[in-house]
From TrEMBL:
<dbReference type="InterPro" id="IPR037066">
    <property type="entry name" value="Plug_dom_sf"/>
</dbReference>
<keyword id="KW-0675">Receptor</keyword>
<dbReference type="Pfam" id="PF14905">
    <property type="entry name" value="OMP_b-brl_3"/>
</dbReference>
<dbReference type="GO" id="GO:0009279">
    <property type="term" value="C:cell outer membrane"/>
</dbReference>
<keyword id="KW-0472">Membrane</keyword>
<feature type="domain" description="TonB-dependent receptor plug">
    <location>
        <begin position="153"/>
        <end position="257"/>
    </location>
</feature>
<feature type="domain" description="Outer membrane protein beta-barrel">
    <location>
        <begin position="659"/>
        <end position="999"/>
    </location>
</feature>
<dbReference type="InterPro" id="IPR013784">
    <property type="entry name" value="Carb-bd-like_fold"/>
</dbReference>
<keyword id="KW-0998">Cell outer membrane</keyword>
<dbReference type="InterPro" id="IPR036942">
    <property type="entry name" value="Beta-barrel_TonB_sf"/>
</dbReference>
<dbReference type="InterPro" id="IPR012910">
    <property type="entry name" value="Plug_dom"/>
</dbReference>
<protein>
    <submittedName>
        <fullName>TonB-dependent receptor</fullName>
    </submittedName>
</protein>
<feature type="signal peptide">
    <location>
        <begin position="1"/>
        <end position="25"/>
    </location>
</feature>
<dbReference type="GO" id="GO:0030246">
    <property type="term" value="F:carbohydrate binding"/>
</dbReference>
<keyword id="KW-0732">Signal</keyword>
<dbReference type="InterPro" id="IPR041700">
    <property type="entry name" value="OMP_b-brl_3"/>
</dbReference>
<dbReference type="Pfam" id="PF07715">
    <property type="entry name" value="Plug"/>
</dbReference>
Amino acid sequence: MHQLRKSALSGAVALALLAPLHVSAQAPSVPAQNQDTGGIRGRVLNTATGEYVRNAEIRVQGTGIVVYSEEGGLFRISGVPAGQATLTVRYTGLNDASRTATVTAGQVASLDIALEAPSYTGTRAGDATELDAVRVVGSFTGQDIAIMERRAAMNAKNVVPADTYGALTMGDVGEFMKSMPGISLDYTEVDATAVRIGGLDPKYSTFTLDGGRMATATSNNNSGRQNSFEQMSVTGIESIELNNTLTASMDADAPAGNINLRSKYAFDRTRRDFVFQLGAVASSDSKFFSRQYFPDDRKHATVYPSGQIGYADVYMDGRFGVAFNASYNANYVQQERIQTDWAYYADGRVLPYRLMWRPGPKMTSRTAANLSTDFRINDEWTASLRSAYSLYDVEYFNQYTYLYLGTTTTSYATPDSTPTHLVVNPVGTGGSSPRLRTEYSHRYAATPTITLAPKLEFKGETLDVALRGNYSTSEFNFRDSSEGFFQRTDSWLTRLGFTAERASEGSQAWYLQQTAGRDWSNPANWNLDDDIGNNVRNNESDARNRQTGLNLDVKKELEFGGHPFTLLTGLGTRTNDWETDESHYQQYQYVGPNGDLTQRDPAAAVPWTEHYQFGFLNLDAGNVDSQGWRADNNYAMYEIYKAHPDWFVPDTVGNLKRVFDNNKRVRETVNAAYVEGQTRWGDARFDLGLRYEQTETEARTAVIRPASEVEAAGLSTSTVEGLCYQYHCVDGKPTYSTRKGRYEDFFLSGGVKYDFSERLVGQLAFSDSILRPDYGNLGGIVSINDDTMIVTVPNSRLRPEHSTKYFAGLQYYFEPAGVLGASYYRLDIEDMQATGFTVNPEDVGFDPEEYAGYEFRSARNVPGTSTNEGLILEYSQQLAFLPGALKGLSLRGSYTRIRPDGERVNLPEEVANWGLGYRYGRLDIQVNGNYQSDYRVSGLSNTPTTANNGVLYRAARQMWNLSVNWKLSENFDLQLAGRNVFDEPDVIYSNVRSRVQRYDRYGSMWNIGIRGRF
C-alpha cells in the first residue's frame, strides 16, 4: 500500500486550490452554448522586431475567455459566442491592440494581430531620432519575453532570453546564469561548472533541453547526479527557463528546481535570418604577436579564434522551418595558485607545514551545434526535432610543486619560527625530511554530449496531444598516455635546509633562501638521495550516461459551471544508464636503464623541460621565480616508456586491484503518470497536479571473498593469484552481481496566481519532489576489513530523499518593460542520505551468511527533516521615461538570502547580481557584476583545531563582466566581451580571513569580433 506523501502544509494548499473547483461545481450552471459558438485562430506579430511572440495575453471582450499565444505566435480560442467578437491583446513593451472577428457557429475564424511599439521619439532639439527609437524598443525584447512568460506560467518560473546580458566570451551556460536571480555557481578553477538553486547542492537540480532530459556524465561527478556546464552551450538557445517549483508533467527528481534550455524556433520569424560572428579570444596573459613555450616544451599561440553561424528560414509555403546554429570558441588561461597548508599543533602553535606553488597553463575549446526542425503536416499536426551537440575539451598542466616544512603533527621548523618567518634545518631522510617535490597533474579531458528530442503533436480546437521522445548521451573522458604523456612524473629533493619569509599571513610573496642540501636550482640533483617509490602514473578514466525517454501528453479544454477548466494528463517512461570505468589508474617506479630499485641512479632522473621555465605571470610570488626550479617533462617521460617499458616497474597487484574495484554501472527505469487541472476564477488562476513515479534500479557490484577465506585457501591478497581468487575471477576477470531495488511515489504540485491589478501579481506554489541516491551508493564496491570485521557495502535499497518546496512571490511590472519583485521559498527534506551506518545485511540486499560474523556498514536514510529557507529580491527596468538619450538606460539587480537550519558546506548564504545597460543609437553596452558571500568548504566534521587546516572557508568574491556592441552599419556590429575584467582572485582561508590557505588568480578573458546579420 503506497500512501500519498505530503506534509500538512502541502495538504492545506491542495485543499485551498480545490475549493474554487468545488464552488464552481455548486454554482448555478450557465446554459450550454456549444451550438452557438465557434473558434478563432491566428498569430500575434511584434512589428518592431518582425518576430511572432508567445505568451501574448488575448481576451475576448464580454466573456471570461483568456488565452495565451504559443510558439510561433499561434493562438486558438474555442467557445466564442457566434457573431462579432472583439479580441484585446496585451504584451508588455508594446501597445495594446483590439481586433474584431466574425465568428460563425461551428466554424473557426482566422485573425492575425500585429502589435506596434510605442514611440519614444521627441520633437525638441536633442530628442531621440526615429532610428534611435527603434534601437531603444529593440532593447525591450529581452525583458518583455521574460515578463510575459513569467506571467503566463502557473508554476514559480523565471525566464531570461539568452541575449539579455550581452555578448559572452565562451558561449557557456555558466557565464549566462551567474546573473540570474536566486542562484549561485560552483567554480572549478576559472570555469563555472555547476549551478545551485537556493543554495542547494547541484545534484538537487536537473537540466533539460526543450523539455528533454540531459544526460549527466561530467567531471568530478563519478558518484553523483549533477549536470555540469561543461556539457552544454548557449549556442542556438533562445532563452533559459528557471522553474523554481515543478508541475505534474515534469520529472519529480529536482527538489531545488529545473532549468530548461529552449532552442530557437524558425516559425518565430517572418523572414530568413542569417547571422555570423568571427573573432578572437585572449586572456590578460596572452601574447598577441608571439608564441610562448608551454610545459610540453613546445611553442603555442595564446590567442585563439572564435566563430558562430546561425541560419533560420521557413520553406514549403511556411510549412517547414529550420533553425541551425553552430559555434567554436577556444581560449588559453594561466591558472596560478599559491597555497599555504596550516597545521594546528597540539601545543597551540599554528604554522604552515607545507607550501605549494602552481603555474597552470590551460587550453580549452568548445564546439557546439543546435538544429531545430519543424514540419506542419496540416493545420493540426506538426512533427518536430530538437537536437544539440556539444564538445568541450581541455588540456591543463597543473604543476603542483610542494615545499614540505613538516607534517600536521610534527614541524621541522625551529622553535622561534613564525607564520611569516620560517627557519627549517635538514633533519631525517626521505619522506621524513624537509623536501621539495613535484606532484603534477597533467590531463586532457573531453566531454561530448548529444541530445535529441523528437515530437509529434496534434493541436485541435480543444484537444492537444503530444508524443515526445528523448535521447541524450554524455561522456567524460580523461586522457593522458593515449595523448602522449603521463599524468604524473614525480621528482623530489630531500634533506633540505631553507628559510621562508613574507610580510604577513595573507601575503603570497614568499622569499626563499636555501641553506642546506643539494642545489635545488640544478634539475640533475633531484631523485639522488632517497627512494621516491611509485613516481610515474597514468590515470585515464571514462564516465558515461545515457538517458532515453518517451512521453505522451494530453491537454483538453473543458468548461464547468461557466468557468474554463484545462485538464492535462500523460504517461512517460525514462531509462537512465550510468557507468564509469576508472580502471586505468596505473603507477610505476621509474628505475632507468640500470634497473636501480633504490631510485638513486642519476641515469633514472625524470626528464625536465629545456625551454619552458617554471614561473608565474599574474601573481607576486616573491623570489620563487628566480629559484630556477625544474619543470617535469611528462611528454619526454612517456617517450622513454614507449621505447623502454622495462625501465618502469609496475605496481602489479595495486594496478590490478584498481581495475577490479573501479568498474561500476547503475541502471534506472522510471515509469510515470500524471494528471493536472487548471482553472480561472475571476482574476485568480489555479493549478493542482498529481504525479506518480515507479522506480526500478539495478546496480553492479563485485563479489568479494574475505581475506581470511583467501588465506585459508593458502593464498595472499598481495599476489595476483590471491587477488583473483578473492574476486572470483573467471578468465582473469572478476565476478559481478546485480542488486535490484524498486519503489513508488506520489507527488503533489500546484499553485494559485492572482492579478491584483494589471501590474501587480501575487503567486503561491508548491511541489513535492525526490532525490534518488547517488550512483556510488547504488553501485559502489564492497570493502572488507578483516582486522575490524567490518564490511562496507553499497546500498542498492537506499531510499531516495523526499522534499516539498513552497514558494510565495509578489511582482510589480513596469511598462514598457521591468519588474520589482520579492519571493520567499522553503524546502523541507526528509529521508536525508548519509553514509557510515551499521545496517542489517538483509536491508541492503546481502545474505548474512556471505560474511558470517562481520559487521555491515552502508549508507542509510536518517530520520528528521532538514529545512532551507530563502528570500529573493529583484529589480529590473528599462528607463524609457527619461528624456532624450537617457531613454536607452536600463538597470537590474537581485539579492538572495539563504537561511539553512544548520551550517552547510559550499553554501554561500548571500548572493547578489547587478547590471547597468545602455542601448541607444549605435551603442549597446552592458556592465554586469555578481557577488557571493563567504562559505565553508571543509567537511562538517572539521573543527577550528583540526590538525590539517582547521576549517576552510572560501572568501567573499565579486566579479565584473563587460559587453560592448557598436553598430558599424545596418548589417555589421563590432563586439567586445570581457569576463572577470578586474581579475578578482579566488581565496580560501583557514579559520580566520587573514590566514590565507589558497590564493588563485586566473586573469581576465576577452572576446572581440565582428558580427553580421542578414
